[in-house]
Amino acid sequence: MDISSIMSAQVAQLQHTVQLSIMDKALNMGAASAVEMLNQLPQQQASAANHPYKGTVIDVSV
Hints:
Blueprint: H1 3-40
C-alpha cells in the first residue's frame, strides 16, 4: 500500500468517528431536553380534579 491510500483510509475512519460523535452528542442533548420538558410538566394532584361521582355511583335502575 502506498502512503496515499493509507492516509485516505485514515481520513475516512476519522470522518466516521466524528460523525458518530456528533450524532451521540445530538442524541444526548435531545434526551436531556425531553427529560427537562417532562420535569416541567405540572404535577397531577390526586384530589384536585376528581369527578364528583364518577367511579363511585353504580346505576342499578334497569
